[in-house]
Amino acid sequence: MTTAQIVLSVIYFIVSLGLIAVVMLQSGKSAGLSGAIAGGADTFLSKNKAKSADARLARMTKWVAIVFMLLTLVLCLVPGAAA
User: Fold this and answer.
1) 42: phi > 0 → left, psi -120 to 50 → alpha, else beta; which?
2) CA distances from 65 to 3, 16, 45, 81 (A)
3) pLDDT higher than 70, residue 76
4) DSSP string spanning 7-40?
5) So where are the chain's domains?
6) Average pLDDT for the chain
7) Of 83, 80, 64, the residue nearest 11 (C-alpha)
8) Within a 10 A sphere around the Cβ of 48, how many other Cβ atoms?
9) What is each CA distance from 54 to 35, 42, 48, in whole angstroms?
10) What counts of helices (H) and strands (E) characterise the chain?
11) What's phi and psi for 41, nearest 5 deg?
């Protein structure tokens, strides 16, 4: 392996861990429904705060996934990277 391949592989590993972490931090789509059934009363500010955090995580997931896919293509196109 060349130095470029090693560096790309390390970056690929870090991005993959980041993608896993961002996906795991997101709340499930059914979380709002269970709170409504249980009768949980949230204030207006806490609801908006949760939505903005979820929206930020969703945006971050999209960008990290795009970087992950681009790195996958680059690693496949670099000669000698795939064994």
Assistant:
1) beta
2) 24, 9, 30, 21
3) yes
4) HHHHHHHHHHHHHHHHHHHSPPTTHHHHHHHHT-
5) 3-77
6) 80
7) 64
8) 11
9) 16, 16, 10
10) 3, 0
11) -105, 110
